[in-house]
C-alpha cells in the first residue's frame, strides 16, 4: 500500500507508456484529458511565470519590434493562447507557432486560437525545427520526460541553433512529494480522464536535476544551458542569448 503513494523513484521509468500515447485510447477520454491540461498547466506548471521571466521581460526592452515564439508540443493550445493574451496585455507584438504531432489535439488547438490570428497551429514535432526556421523564443512544457537522453541531446543542439533570444523547457521533477501531491490532486480534480494514471507515470519518467546536468555536461557542454528548479516540483532548462 505504501508503494501506491511512495514508489521507488531512484531510477527513471523508461519502459511504460502513458495511456494518452496509445493509438487505441478511448477518444472520449483523450479529448477530456487534452482539455484538462489547461487546468493542470494553470495550477501546477508555472509556465506563465517562466514566460514572463524569460520572454516578456526581454521583449519589453524593445517593445516596438515583432517577436516570434514557438511552443513545442502545444497540445490543445492553452499555453499559446495564454502567451498571446499576455503579449496583448503588455502592448507587445508576438507571433506564435503552436506545434504538435498529435492530430487529436490539433482541432482543439485551432479552436482555442480562433480569436488569436497571431497564433498559427502546425502539425509536426521537434524534429521539424529546421523546416520552421529560427524563432526569438522557444518553449516546451511536459516534453522532456517523453524523450530519451539521446533525443534530448539532439533536441538541445537544435534549439541552440534555432533560438535567437531564449529557450525554456519546463517539465516535472521526479519527486516523492510531487507524486503524492499529484495523486491527491488528480483524484479530486481530474476525474474521468487519463490524468491520474498518466500524471503519476510522468513523474516516474521524469528527470532529476543532477541527471540533466550530467547529460548536458557529457553531450552539449559550453552552451550556457542552465538547469533550474522551481515550484511546484518543476525542473527547467533555460538558455538565454539576451543581454
Instruction: Quote the CATH topology.
Output: Rossmann fold
Q: Compute the number of strand runs.
A: 7
> How far apart lie the N and C ends?
51 Å
Helix and strand element order: HHHEHEHEHEHEHHHEE
Tally of distinct domains: 1
- Widest beta sheet: strand line-up: 3-2-1-4-5-7-6
Principal-axis shape: globular
Number of helices, where a helix is a run of at least 4 consecutive DSSP H or I residues: 10
- Secondary structural class: alpha/beta
Task: Identify low-pLDDT runs.
Answer: none
**CATH H-level name... which superfamily?**
Vaccinia Virus protein VP39
Helical content band: 40-55%
Largest sheet: 7 strands, mixed
Radius of gyration: 17 Å
What features would you highlight for this structure?
alpha/beta; 7-stranded mixed sheet; 7 strands; globular
Q: Mind sketching the topology for me?
A:
Elements: H1 2-5, H2 27-45, H3 47-59, E1 66-72, H4 78-90, E2 93-100, H5 106-112, E3 119-123, H6 129-132, E4 135-141, H7 149-162, E5 163-172, H8 176-189, H9 195-205, H10 209-219, E6 226-230, E7 234-240
Parallel strand pairs: 1-2, 1-4, 2-3, 4-5
Antiparallel strand pairs: 5-7, 6-7
Helix pairs in contact: 3-4, 8-9
Structure description:
The chain is an alpha/beta fold. The chain has helices at 2-5, 27-45, 47-59, 78-90, 106-112, 129-132, 149-162, 176-189, 195-205, 209-219; strands spanning 66-72, 93-100, 119-123, 135-141, 163-172, 226-230, 234-240. Strands 3-2-1-4-5-7-6 form a seven-stranded mixed β-sheet, sandwiched between helices. A hairpin with a 3-residue loop joins strand 6 (226-230) and strand 7 (234-240). The longest helix has 19 residues, at 27-45. The protein is globular, with a radius of gyration of 17 Å. The relative contact order is 0.17.
Amino acid at each position: 500500500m505504501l508503494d501506491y503513494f511512495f514508489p521507488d523513484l531512484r531510477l527513471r521509468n523508461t519502459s511504460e507508456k502513458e495511456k494518452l500515447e496509445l493509438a487505441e485510447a478511448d477518444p472520449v477520454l483523450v479529448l477530456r484529458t487534452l482539455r484538462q491540461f489547461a487546468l493542470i498547466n494553470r495550477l501546477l506548471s508555472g509556465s506563465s511565470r517562466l514566460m514572463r521571466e524569460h520572454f516578456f521581460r526581454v521583449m519589453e526592452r524593445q517593445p516596438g519590434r515583432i517577436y516570434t515564439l514557438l511552443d513545442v508540443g502545444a497540445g490543445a493550445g492553452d499555453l499559446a493562447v495564454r502567451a498571446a493574451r499576455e503579449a496583448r496585455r503588455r502592448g507587445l507584438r508576438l507571433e506564435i507557432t503552436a506545434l504538435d504531432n498529435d492530430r487529436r489535439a490539433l482541432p482543439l488547438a485551432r479552436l482555442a486560437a480562433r480569436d488569436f490570428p497571431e497564433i498559427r497551429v502546425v502539425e509536426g514535432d521537434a524534429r521539424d525545427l529546421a523546416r520552421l526556421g529560427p524563432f526569438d523564443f522557444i518553449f516546451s512544457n511536459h516534453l522532456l520526460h517523453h524523450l530519451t537522453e539521446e533525443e534530448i541531446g539532439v533536441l538541445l543542439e537544435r534549439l541552440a541553433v534555432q533560438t535567437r533570444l531564449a529557450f525554456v523547457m519546463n517539465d516535472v521533477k521526479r519527486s516523492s512529494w510531487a507524486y503524492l501531491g499529484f495523486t491527491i490532486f488528480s483524484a479530486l480534480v481530474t476525474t474521468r480522464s487519463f490524468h491520474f494514471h498518466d500524471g503519476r507515470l510522468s513523474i516516474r519518467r521524469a528527470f532529476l536535476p543532477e541527471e540533466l546536468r550530467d547529460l548536458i555536461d557529457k553531450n552539449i557542454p559550453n552552451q550556457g544551458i542552465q538547469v533550474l528548479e522551481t515550484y511546484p516540483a518543476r525542473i527547467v532548462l533555460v538558455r538565454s542569448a539576451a543581454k
